[in-house]
Amino acid sequence: MSKSANKIRFTIYAIAFIPFILLLATGVILLKYHTGAPLESTVMGWNAHYWFSFHKLTAVLSILLILLHLFVKTDWVKNLLLSKLKARFKASNIILFIVFIICSLTALCSWLIFDGANIAELLRGIHNKLGLLLIVMFVIHLWNYRKVIVSHCKELK
């Protein structure tokens, strides 16, 4: 792959990383409200309404950018899912992908489809637990690919 193609890929990954980190951080902050704190109480000057709005915004951005991340790696993803790839981190990548999809779907369904219904609360509870698992899987993903990430950073010089 050419140096310019690597720069484009790495730029996409770096841009996708920022809102995803914000998404994970706001998710952790929102756990305060999901565990019973009053919605008017504040964290860093914002109450639950602001944090929920910011979390939704970063979620939409993250989903779009993660899909772009996967699109850039279309052949790799296809080979991974079709078991044609003997990837070293195949299991953790598949788990990360599944957790991400289910976490996103439970959030989107509770927010867009079932908002106000009893099932929305159940979906948010599932989403909260999967969100914590997603954080763990994301850290594992970064750890697994740390040498590749460092290598890409060195290539950019």
TrEMBL record:
<feature type="transmembrane region" description="Helical">
    <location>
        <begin position="12"/>
        <end position="31"/>
    </location>
</feature>
<feature type="transmembrane region" description="Helical">
    <location>
        <begin position="93"/>
        <end position="114"/>
    </location>
</feature>
<keyword id="KW-0812">Transmembrane</keyword>
<feature type="transmembrane region" description="Helical">
    <location>
        <begin position="51"/>
        <end position="72"/>
    </location>
</feature>
<protein>
    <recommendedName>
        <fullName>DUF4405 domain-containing protein</fullName>
    </recommendedName>
</protein>
<feature type="transmembrane region" description="Helical">
    <location>
        <begin position="126"/>
        <end position="145"/>
    </location>
</feature>
<keyword id="KW-1133">Transmembrane helix</keyword>
<keyword id="KW-0472">Membrane</keyword>
